[in-house]
Design a protein that fits this description.
alpha/beta
Length: about 290
């Protein structure tokens, strides 16, 4: 298998042209702060299937994925995580593992401390960490567990699961404005605010900036470019780039390349993922390649 080509960040944008961000250590991998752009991917196995997940993480790592995200969605998956980590280490694979949590991440991390310790980073989506009054407390619970274990987090706003309370408030303010903007522009602003407000809250809870990575994933190329340009201009957090639900095969490759290529050329982005929709029976490593 050919070794994948790394994004030529220094040749394209030049070190002085890159958006200056705070460096975050994810396991043994540096993200941001001028470090080389990090390629990452995600498994599509059932995480409770320890051997199947180990095999896919190993394949993604061999293909060039420097970080691998796994879904931690229920008790069986959380219980499997330390066994996956240990199985990979026995095979000599030290690729950091990222836990992807939805709704009950705070509960799983609290009830499975070995899982919280085995993961190298936690991914939190502000739009689905919890509902209404529970959102703030459940977000705080995850941050506190991350602090206890010395783990970084990615706070990832997503167009498809945006904080509806924030979006509604911004839409109402926009309607009352003397010069209202179009709805897409307001939604983009909600994406940026969701990420920045959540990061500020994490810092209030004691998480240092050098353990926070931000993302704001959108499925439309022009929206993605606009959101990340705005996010980069308003913060110096390390930034994860990715087009969410990019699509299958060539469609996903072209859309992701168009969006991420422009942002990387502008010096924006510290770690990237090409989120290809899996083809039936397809090779998961294609998105890494």
């Amino acid at each position: 298998m050919n070794k994948p080509i790394k994004p030529p960040h220094d040749d394209v944008a030049g070190p002085s042209a890159r958006h200056k961000t705070t460096q975050v250590m994810v396991g043994n991998v540096a993200v941001g702060g001028g470090a080389p752009i990090v390629v990452q991917s995600m498994t599509n196995t059932d995480t409770a299937d320890v051997e199947g997940t180990i095999a896919q993480v190993a394949a993604l790592s061999r293909a060039g994925s420097e970080l691998v995200r796994i879904t931690v969605d229920r008790d069986e998956a959380a219980a499997a995580v330390p066994h996956i980590r240990d199985g990979l280490r026995k095979r000599g694979i030290t690729t950091p593992l990222i836990g992807d949590f939805h709704y009950i991440g705070h509960k799983l991390l609290a009830e499975y401390p070995a899982c919280a310790e085995a993961l190298d980073k936690y991914r939190i989506n502000p739009g689905n960490v919890g509902f209404k009054d529970k959102r703030d407390t459940q977000f705080a619970d995850i941050i506190e567990i991350a602090n206890k274990n010395g783990k970084p987090v990615r706070i990832g706003a997503n167009w498809g699961s945006l904080d509806q309370e924030l979006l509604t408030r911004l839409m109402d303010e926009n309607t009352a404005s003397a010069n209202p903007r179009d709805a897409r522009a307001v939604t983009r602003e909600a994406m940026v605010q969701s990420a920045l407000l959540s990061a500020a809250r994490a810092e209030e809870l004691g998480m240092p900036k050098n353990r926070i990575i931000l993302s704001a994933k959108v499925s439309a190329v022009q929206d993605l470019i606009a959101v990340y340009q705005d996010l980069a201009s308003r913060s110096d957090y390390a930034i994860h780039l990715g087009l969410t639900e990019a699509g299958m095969g060539t469609k996903g490759i072209v859309a992701s390349s168009a969006a991420l290529g422009i942002l990387l050329q502008q010096g924006i982005g510290d770690t990237i993922r090409i989120s290809l929709t899996p083809e039936p029976g397809g090779d998961r490593t294609r998105e890494v390649q």
